[in-house]
């Protein structure tokens, strides 16, 4: 509002200037506006009137980013984001009278050889998935055309190679205990930034067994257990425990990628009796919660 009032006053002053030419000084437009490589905007001064100041407007994409009135014919604009076209408009003002504006529309280019570092890398597991995010300085955000992301998994031979336009990626189905290495490069104009690497290990989790099969006769109970597979949980499995009210057993496990089912055979039992037992698995995260089971042995078949 204040700005519009100033213009109205300037027009009024201009009208008066016709009849009182000696008392009103209309400042000449500023001379050539220039933006140097260090991000300093300069213009040649308007010198025909006393105590001239300059109104500087900076517009981008049709909207006003900055407006100020300054005394010196220069303005540091180096903190503006690179890789955008800015409209720098300068109007000389003397004693409330605005001269004609002059403007320069020019791209603010990234100086050659500038590296765009990746900052604040963050990885967050969300249920079975993993969100990774990173940032670059906001001054470079209009420059980057895409990011190249390489995801190395500690077991896979080939990294996953991706091109993403946003600074993040949602990786589905990550296995517990997997150690990932992420290499990120930002590309802009015709160049690329230095590749930066980050490591992340998916937190460990216990491996809860599930019952596949139960077979019993008068004196034996056989159970088959499947373990969480390697693509779900890579934490190293070491043993399966069977804790019963009348027996205990430990099955040591030599972990392999195949993770075959574990057969548990409990023999020497009494016929026609109910047995209660708990089965749990130990891995690098600890002992899992137990699966509780109640199985009745068969009566002796006298036939
Ligand atoms: C630049 O800004 C000035 C002042 O706001 C405006 O008069 C001019 O039309 C603009 N030029 C372009 C190319 O946007
Ligand atoms: C850009 O990437 C190329 C290979 O793609 C690499 O040789 C070069 O060193 C990279 N440039 C920078 C500045 O990291
Ligand atoms: C990332 O992990 C790799 C392999 O697991 C290792 O060689 C490297 O030193 C780790 N880097 C960091 C920064 O932890
Ligand atoms: C239980 O397993 C043992 C050993 O593998 C086998 O000899 C026996 O026949 C099985 N019993 C039943 C009821 O499946
Ligand atoms: C199985 O585990 C449950 C819960 O921890 C416990 O209450 C129960 O006594 C256990 N049963 C056996 C046979 O150890
Ligand atoms: C089985 O192990 C549990 C816990 O380790 C123990 O409390 C229980 O007495 C043992 N049962 C037998 C029959 O040995």
From TrEMBL:
Superkingdom, taxonomy of origin: Eukaryota
Keywords tagged on the record: Signal
Origin species: Exocentrus adspersus
Full protein name: Fibronectin type III domain protein
Signal peptide per UniProt: 1-21
Keyword Cytoplasm: no
């Amino acid at each position: 509002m204040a700005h519009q009032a100033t213009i109205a006053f300037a027009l009024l002053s201009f009208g008066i200037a016709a009849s009182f030419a000696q008392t009103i000084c209309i400042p000449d437009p500023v001379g050539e506006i220039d933006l140097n490589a260090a991000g300093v905007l300069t213009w040649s001064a308007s010198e025909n009137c006393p105590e001239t100041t300059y109104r500087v407007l900076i517009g981008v994409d049709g909207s006003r980013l900055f407006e100020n009135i300054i005394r010196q014919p220069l303005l540091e604009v180096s903190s503006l984001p690179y890789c955008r076209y800015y409209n720098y408009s300068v109007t000389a003002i003397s004693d409330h009278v605005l001269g004609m504006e002059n403007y320069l529309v020019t791209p603010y280019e990234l100086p050659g050889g500038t590296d765009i570092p990746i900052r604040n890398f963050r990885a967050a597991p969300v249920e079975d998935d993993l969100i990774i995010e990173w940032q670059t300085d906001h001054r470079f955000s209009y420059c980057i055309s895409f990011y190249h992301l390489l995801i190395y998994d500690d077991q896979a031979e080939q990294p996953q190679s991706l091109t993403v336009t946003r600074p993040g990626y949602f990786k589905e189905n990550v296995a517990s205990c997997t150690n990932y290495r992420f290499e990120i490069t930002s590309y802009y104009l015709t160049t690329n930034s230095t590749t930066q690497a980050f490591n992340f290990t998916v937190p460990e989790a216990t491996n809860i067994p599930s019952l596949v099969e139960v077979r019993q006769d008068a004196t034996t109970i056989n159970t088959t257990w499947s373990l969480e597979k390697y693509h779900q949980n890579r934490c190293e499995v070491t043993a399966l425990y069977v804790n019963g009210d009348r027996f205990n057993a430990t099955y040591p496990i030599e972990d392999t990628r195949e993770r075959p089912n574990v057969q548990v055979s409990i023999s020497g039992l009494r016929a026609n009796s109910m047995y209660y037992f708990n089965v749990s698995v130990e891995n690098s995260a600890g002992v899992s919660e137990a699966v509780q089971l109640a199985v009745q042995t068969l009566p002796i078949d006298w036939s």
